[in-house]
Amino acid sequence: MVLDREDRYSLDEVLSDYLPERIKSAIKGLKREVVEELEEIRIRSGLPLMGVFAGFDRFIGRDGFLSENPQHSLIVTSQEVKDLFYLLCDHSVYAYQEDICRGFITLKGGHRAGICGTVVYEGDRIKGMRDISSVSIRLSHQLKGCARDIFKYVIRGRNDIYNTLILSPPRCGKTTVLRDLCRLISQGLGKDKFTGLRTAVIDERSELGASYRGIPQNDLGPRTDILDGCRKSEGIELVLRSMAPHVIIVDELGSPRDADAVRMAWNAGVRLIATAHAFGLEDFKERMGVGQLASGSGFERIILLGMKNGKRWTKVMDSNGRELSGFNQDTGMSDGICGMYRPGAEVIGEAHREAACTAKTYGTFT
Asked: What's this model's pTM, rounded to 2 decimal places?
């Protein structure tokens, strides 16, 4: 299978447009094979420069040397964090105030800068943020084709799909797979195989479409409408009223209000694909509110993502827990994500434990 990795706005352009000189020089010193695994750049005032890679993090020295010892790293100054923040805002903090209140700024190319500092309240509402102390630049890489083998278990004939739930611990590729499933559903595979469907994306955290000034930086398909920065519970109702979608896509279900909105979509005859953090189906079923969505009358396909021995795997099940997947594949994601095989229950449990351990060790990133 040929995969198309989208890098329209390269790391070099991110470096030149935003990063202060010392940090830019350190990142440029990284070896090429290391840069290909780079997922996030963590920049904290008065603390070591850090890179988050596929499955691990390391401190970064002045010349790009990676170390587990923070004493060997470049120490970021408060002025560098301040300069970076103003560059991210195009020197207009007011223009990006709504984004700042949400905790992140979406950059050209779909990259995202998370922000921490002193939160300013106005009553019960976050008004802004001052004294910025850290910035996390999360690099976006769309991987077209990574969900193609999964897709055949999601479609139901030529013009319909199953309500599908994607579960995994943090950093196992949920959002990447969801993004590609959205593209395939919207695009279609040709009239004889699967006709594309009108699709609405509720992009609460601007991760799926990664809209920059109203233009999605990721390809979610030609029949897709994106509601950016809107809560899932409110967004589902909005698109049901205004866009008449066949399919609704949401990332990271969690609250009881999300569950009510999902039921609203189903009652309207609309299909839904969603993700959630969980270490397995039983773990998800124990969640307050949303757990009931995985019952017999809820999601019809369950996709599990996990990690074993540093390799990621995928398992597809029906609503009764019967395994449907039974083949190997390489989606092209880092460390062989989604190598599909037929693990037994004992292996699944071991994989979940390893993924949980990985999440606790390296932090809870998607």
From this structure: 0.76
